[in-house]
Amino acid sequence: MTTQIMPSNPNSIKSRFTYRFVRALKKLNKSRGVSSSMKETYRRYHMIRVASYASMASAVGSKRAWSRSVLWRIKKKSRFHALRRRKASENPRNDINFHQDNVLRKLIPGGEDMEFCRLLNETAHYIKCLRTQVQIMKNIVDHCSN
Amino acid sequence: MDSEDNVGRRFQQRKGDSILNCPSSGIVENSIYEKVPGTGMSSESMFKMRNGVDHFYGSGWDTIVSLNPSGNFGGSSVVPRNEFPDSNYSVVLENQTVNFPSESGLVDMMPKIPSFGSGSYPEMVSSFPVTECGPITGTIRDPTYARNNVSGFEMALTNVADSQEHCQNSEDGVVGVSPNGKRKRKVSMGASPKNIEVECQKDPPEDISEFPNEEYDKKQKFEQNAGANLRNKQVVKQAKDSSTTAEPSKENYIHVRAKRGQATNSHSLAERVRRERISERMRLLQELVPGCNKITGKAVMLDEIINYVQSLQQQVEFLSMKLATVNPELDTDIDRILSKDILQFRGNNPAALGIGSGLSSSHPFPGFSPGTFGVPGANPPYHPLPQALWNNDLQSILQMGFDANPPSSNLGPNGPSKMEL
Fold first, then answer.
1. Which residues form the signal peptide (chain A) (predicted)?
2. Is B104 helix (H, G, I), strand (E, B) or coil?
3. In whole angstroms, what is the distance from residue A48 CA to residue B324 CA?
4. Residue B105 and residue B216: Cα distance in Å, rounded?
5. Going by C-beta distance under 8 Å and a sequence separation of 6 or more, which residues neighbour residue B154?
6. How far apart are CA A22 and CA A16, in angstroms?
7. Predicted ipTM?
8. Residues 6+ apart with CB under 8 A from B342
9. What share of chain B is helix, strand, coil (3-state, %, to 5)?
10. Shortest alpha-carbon distance between residue B295 and chain A (Å)
11. Model confidence over B28-53: pLDDT tens digits?
12. SS3 for B116-147, per residue?
């Protein structure tokens, strides 16, 4: 399974994301506490998730509005990110009766004040990057669980 | 008699010493037609042309009057020639109100005129008094008769010159003269009894001829200042308005097509363009989101897209939760992780590709052949094996409430992911 190593483009979004994400995971592992309580797991889960989004956004760069928004949000709210994360994760579930545009605007980072046409563009790019992110994270989980 | 002097000076500049020797009609008309190209070439906008027309007017009319005391012509011959430009102008007025916007391209035709005016004039003049015997009384002049007059004039022109040049010339004359014609007609209406009286005296002495001339000039100036100027401005403004309103609408019609029954104002056109762009993006997203190919309808597609993005974000959450629970030993290099998915999804459905080829940030993932580029979000519906692995891992490692794993949530984008919410 590991005999064949394909040459990968170091400049692709995928490899850049993988590099950043693995580095963030290593850093998180170093600072990991010994306790494996539920709270500690939850905290690690949040940090890993934020790390994955941040590494994806930084891999994309500041070319896209959604990556800029993610990076800006992480940079600004890093101090209160646990509180904000909970709020942000709770909000879309309460807004079921919102209009579809508004739902999509809340899903795409930075899409609240976007024009609808641009929102669709950003959505397309965001979907592609999320797919890559999910795939790489899945591979890492597979690799670690094996 | 400064106006007379002005006219004389202007005329001297134009025609030089040929006033007394040449036939008056020929001089007048030559001066007219040589003045027209001068105005037309020097001016492009209608307003400038109107300024030029003032000169033209002064030359065209006053030279005749100043030629009256030269004594070579009977009053009867003077009168029709006096009437001739008049009728011409009034016709010009009639034509001008209709044809003004369409004749804006005449400026480049102007240089052809002097040759015409110089060469072929006398025949035209000779053919003219037949038609202008009527309008001796300038007050009775009516547009229909004037139109007839011009038709005769044009027919004479066709006899003389070839048809195309004649048309250009006549149109040029029409446009260049037009505001003046209105004024002239008005003036002649006002001052016609005295003019006719003077003209009927057949050999008017200079003082008498100058007296109505002066009065005529006064009247002319008055008209020019009070009424005709305003009217000319109105005409010019009207022409400008028509030209400015006609052109952008034409451009809009050219650029954005409006089907039958569609609104054509700018807002609805812009809205239509925006809707087209949105539908184009929607098509792009339709290719991106799995299971969205057969859906027509923007609302349903937006639902699909929202569900897909939500499912992807939930997968990220789930994977980060899983990474938080497992103890990752990340000593392996990135290439191995990157190449792992190739081997894992090798030979899978090529329909699962789309990241590398579709990324708009020009990262084609060259290391991976596009057919083997697996997308986990799109793969599990077609490949139960990794899903089973996922389920095993999930159930074994996590005892948490993620009963609906993200791959299964992708099976029905409307169903499980919504229930999961």
1. none
2. helix
3. 7
4. 34
5. B166, B170
6. 10
7. 0.80
8. A4, A6, B368, B372, B373, B374
9. 75, 0, 25
10. 16
11. 444 444 444 433 333 333 343 444 33
12. HHHHCHHHHHHHCCCCCCHHHCHHHCCHHHHH
AA letter at B186: K
Please answer yes or no on whether B302 and A100 come within 8 Å at the CB atom: yes
Rounded (10°) angle between helices B46-67 and B24-42 = 160
- Placement of tokens 């952008």 in the chain: B248
Q: Which two tokens stand for residue B153?
A: 């004039």
B314/B401 Cα distance (integer angstroms): 13
Q: In terms of CA atoms, which chain A residue is nearest residue B346?
A: A1
Torsions phi, psi for B347 (to 5 deg): 75, 10
**Minimum Cα–Cα distance from A120: chain B residue:** B281
Instruction: Measure the CA–CA gap between B329 and A25, rounded to whole angstroms.
Output: 9
pLDDT tens by residue, A28-79 = 877 766 666 778 888 888 888 888 888 888 888 888 888 888 888 887 765 5
Report how far residue B378's alpha carbon sits from residue B381's, in angstroms, rounded to the nearest whole number.
7
Burial of B114 (0-12, 13-18, 19+ CB in 10 A): middle
Return the pLDDT at B411: 38
Give DSSP secondary structure letters for chain A: --S------TTSHHHHHHHHHHHHHHHHHHT--S---HHHHHHHHHHHHHHHHHHHHHHH-TTSHHHHHHHHHHHHSSTTHHHHHHHHHHHHHH-TTS-HHHHHHHHSTT-TT--HHHHHHHHHHHHHHHHHHHHHHHHHHHHHH-
The yes-or-no verdict on residue A16 having pLDDT over 50 is yes
- Distance from the Cα of A69 to chain B's closest Cα (Å) equals 16
pLDDT, average across residues B319-336: 71
Mutate to test the interface with B, among A128, A136, A143, A146 (most CBs of B within 10 A): A128
Pair B192, B219: CB distance under 8 Å: no
Residue labelled with tokens 């591979």: A139
Alpha carbon distance B183, A63 (integer Å): 66
Q: Is B388 on the interface with A (CB under 8 A)?
A: no
Residue type, B44: E
* Chains A–B, number of C-beta pairs less than 8 Å apart: 223
- Give Cβ neighbours of residue B195 (< 8 Å, ≥ 6 apart): B82, B138, B188, B212, B216
B387 pLDDT more than 80? no
Q: For residues B74 and B203, what is the distance between their CA atoms, to the nearest angstrom?
A: 7
CB neighbour class for B327 (10 Å; exposed up to 12, middle 13-18, buried from 19)? exposed
Is B274 at the interface with chain A, CB within 8 A?
yes
Distance between CA atoms of B118 and B128, rounded to whole angstroms? 17
Q: pTM for the full model?
A: 0.41
Interface test with B, best of A21, A141, A143 (most B CBs within 10 A): A141
Which residues in chain A have their CB less than 8 angstroms from residue B302's CB? 100-101, 104
Distance CA A20, CA B6 (A): 90
